[in-house]
Amino acid sequence: MTDHQHTSPVSQATTRYAGEELPFSERDSAHIPGHWLLARLGKRVLRPGGRELTRQMLSHAGIEGHKVVEFAPGLGSTAKEILQHTPASYVGVDEDRKAAAIVDNIVAGTGHAVTAKAQETGLPDDSADVVVGEAMLTMQSDKGKQSIIAEAARLLRPGGRYAIHELGLEPDNLDDETKTLIRKSLARAIKVNARPLTAAEWKALLESEGFEVDWIGSAPMALLDIRRNVADEGIVGVLRILRNLIRDKQARERVMTMKRAFTQYRQHMNGIAVVAHKR
Ligand SMILES: C[S@@+](CC[C@H](N)C(=O)[O-])C[C@H]1O[C@@H](n2cnc3c(N)ncnc32)[C@H](O)[C@@H]1O
C-alpha cells in the first residue's frame, strides 16, 4: 500500500503536479501546513498579495538579461513569471525536495532548482543580480528572517536587487497586543508560525542587512477571496479547488478556519512587496 492510500480523497485526486509528487501528499488535511493544503486542493498562487502584486514586484526588480535566484519557489508559479522576463539564468532554492523537483522541470532550459534552505543555499558569493523570495520570510522568527536576508545579501553583487512579497501588518503603529493576537490566530489556522511585520518593520529589517529600499507595493490580504482566486487561478482552477473542497470535509473545515482568521484581522493585514538593492 502506498502512502497515498492512507490519505483523504482530495489528496488522491491531486497529489501530482508538473510530473512530480506534491509535498506533504501523505499528511491528512487536518494537520498539513496551510499552504500545502491549499496546493493539494489545486491552488497554485500561495502568497498573500496574489499574482498581480507579484507582477508589479517583478516589473520593479529588473530581471531581463540578469542572473536570478528564487528562494522558496514552491510550485513554481513565480518561476514561470520570471522566465517570461527572460533572465540570463534562474536558480530555485527550495528546502522541500519535491518542490525543487517540480520547479526543476518547469525551468528546464533556462535554469535549475536545488534542494537547500534559503539560510544556507551553498551558492557562490556575488553570483546573482536579482534574488526573489515570496511567502517564506513571514514564517520565520526574527533571527530566521535576518539570516535569510543576509544570505540574499551574500549572493547578490553590489547594486543587485532583492524582491520580497510577504504578509504585512498595518498601520505601522499597530499595538503589540493586536500583533500577538494575529500571530496566534494565524498559527492556529495555518499550522505554521507566521510572524507578519509592518511596512516600517520590513524596511528596517532589510536596511539592517545592508539593503536600501527602492519600491514598496501592497494589496489586500485576499488569499481565500473568490474574486482574487478567479484572478489568480482562473475559472477552471477555482472549479477544481471547489470540487476538491466538496470531497474533503477536513479540508473544508481547515479552509473555513483560515478564512475566518484572515477575515477577522482583514483591516490589519495585507500583502506587501518590497524591492531593495544591496548598497
Ligand atoms: C508558502 S509556499 C511559498 C511558495 C511560493 N514562493 C509562492 O509564493 O507561491 C512555501 C514554500 O517555501 C519553501 N520554504 C519555506 N521556507 C524555506 C526556506 N527557509 N528555505 C527554502 N525553502 C523554503 C517550502 O518548501 C515551500 O515550497
From TrEMBL:
InterPro entries: Methyltransf_25 (IPR041698), Methyltransf_Superfamily (IPR050508), SAM-dependent_MTases_sf (IPR029063). Gene3D superfamilies: Vaccinia Virus protein VP39. One of its GO terms (biological process) is methylation. It comes from the Bacteria. Keywords: Methyltransferase, Transferase. GO terms for molecular function: methyltransferase activity. Residues 68-160 form the Methyltransferase domain. This is Methyltransferase domain-containing protein. It comes from Bifidobacterium crudilactis.
